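Long-time lurker, first post. I've been practising inverse folding by hand and with some scripts of my own, and I keep getting stuck on stretches where the structure tokens seem ambiguous. Below is the full token string for one chain I'm working on. Before anyone asks, I'm not after the true native sequence, just a reasonable design that respects the backbone. If someone could post their per-position residues I'd love to compare against what I wrote down in my notebook.
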């Protein structure tokens, strides 16, 4: 039996990743082997040319938190971030007692240079530029604004590893950048993150901080290693059951409830709080998983682009708003916009297809937007778009036939 079309739920995991995770589960001696992390760092940095050094940590949010503290961000400083983002981004700012300054988005779901230039001021000490869905932000204008005011740019490449802008790799345009190896990202080791840095002084500062971090505990490592393994067992039965209660959903709920599997975002984070496990070193076991995925990056991204081309072609006159075509985009998910996104999303779900809902609100997931200091009305375009974006799957094992099924499904849900 095959996995159903599901945008989430370990979408990058292939058979060799599952076998590797099983082997690692039974080799605790490798869990905290730093050599494996060094190997990953060297190969990762090499993809960006010889000017860069890479530093691994246990998540993208840990990477961002370390970068912000190394840049000296402290109480009452402002850090510009875009609306339509993951709670991990404003939280990293808030955990340092600084203030997220929300900038509206343009129609590519990326930071609007116009709103940026209107909102930044004396207190703005850094700008985080997110390349949403693997599509580059408008870097020329953003860099111009930042350079004029001497504000450092942190590129958030959590969704954009391998993407390009002006033929340059994303992550090499700003002052420093970070990547995520989270379960729904471009490549996955369940949890994991990487800092990419070319400034030697800043690198040495970050290296010192990172080397003094602890590793997450063995229970945490076991929990993550089980993720690809258990999901590969559950997924083929995900939609089997009666009505809304299916075997897969029930199993996933129970495994998460009893702490056998983790969630991508902890409940404390939805309230703005920091779980103890961030920041921490990247365990060797996850470095091995991430390196195995890194070797597949080019194939993964080529596939994503091919699937995106199918959506571009087949949804041309469907009444759904498509994104702009762009050669450098890697389309970790393919975002389309429709007024009735929620109905379409639910219609697909009833037919056993799980589409994505990034970003159903200005910041996700949070209990309440005030927790992350977002003031209603401050980013009107983002608020207008939130809840109207449907993410179509592009993940590595999605076949072209399945992409065509998604197209048909969308068309039937529209009628
Ligand atoms: C845009 C963006 N930035 C940063 C992060 C944080 O990455 P991680 O989940 O590895 O902590 C995420 C994760 O969800 C994200 O979507």
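-- Answer (accepted) --
I ran through it position by position. Result:
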């Amino acid at each position: 039996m095959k996995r159903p079309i599901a945008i989430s739920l370990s979408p990058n995991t292939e058979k060799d990743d599952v076998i590797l995770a099983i082997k690692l589960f039974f080799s605790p001696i490798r869990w905290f082997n730093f050599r494996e992390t060094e190997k990953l760092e060297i190969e990762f940095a090499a993809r960006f040319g010889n000017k860069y050094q890479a530093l691994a940590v246990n998540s993208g949010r840990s990477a961002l938190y370390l970068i912000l503290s190394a840049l000296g961000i402290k109480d009452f400083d402002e850090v510009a971030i875009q609306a339509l983002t993951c709670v991990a981004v404003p939280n990293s700012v808030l955990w340092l007692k600084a203030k997220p300054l929300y900038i509206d988005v343009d129609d590519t779901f990326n930071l609007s240079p116009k709103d940026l230039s209107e909102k930044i001021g004396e207190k703005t000490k850094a700008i985080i530029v997110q390349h949403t869905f693997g599509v580059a932000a408008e870097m020329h204008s953003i860099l111009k604004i930042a350079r004029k005011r001497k504000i450092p740019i942190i590129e958030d490449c959590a969704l954009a590893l391998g993407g390009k802008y002006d033929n340059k790799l994303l992550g090499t345009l700003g002052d420093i950048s970070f990547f995520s190896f989270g379960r729904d990202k471009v490549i996955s080791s369940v949890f994991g993150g990487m800092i990419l840095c070319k400034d030697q002084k800043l690198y040495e500062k970050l290296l010192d901080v990172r080397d003094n971090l602890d590793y997450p505990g063995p229970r945490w490592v076991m929990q993550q290693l089980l993720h690809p393994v258990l999901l590969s067992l559950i997924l083929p039965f995900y939609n089997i059951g009666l009505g809304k209660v299916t075997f897969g959903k029930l199993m996933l709920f129970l495994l998460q409830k009893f702490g056998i599997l983790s969630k991508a975002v902890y409940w404390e984070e939805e309230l703005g709080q920091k779980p103890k496990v961030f920041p921490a070193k990247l365990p060797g076991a996850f470095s091995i998983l991430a390196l195995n995925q890194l070797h597949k990056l080019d194939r993964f991204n080529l596939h994503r682009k091919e699937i995106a081309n199918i959506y571009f072609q087949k949804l041309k006159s469907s009444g759904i708003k498509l994104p702009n075509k762009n050669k450098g985009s890697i389309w970790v998910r393919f975002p389309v916009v429709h007024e009735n996104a929620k109905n379409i999303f639910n219609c697909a779900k009833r037919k056993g297809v799980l589409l994505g809902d990034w970003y159903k609100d200005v910041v996700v997931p949070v209990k309440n937007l005030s927790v992350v200091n977002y003031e209603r009305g401050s980013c009107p375009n983002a608020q207008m778009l939130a809840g109207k974006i449907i993410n179509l799957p592009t993940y590595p094992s999605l076949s072209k036939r399945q992409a065509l099924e998604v197209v048909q499904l969308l068309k039937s849900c529209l009628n």
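A couple of notes from the structure itself: The chain has two domains: 21-211, 297-414. The longest helix spans residues 297-314. Happy to go over any region you disagree with.
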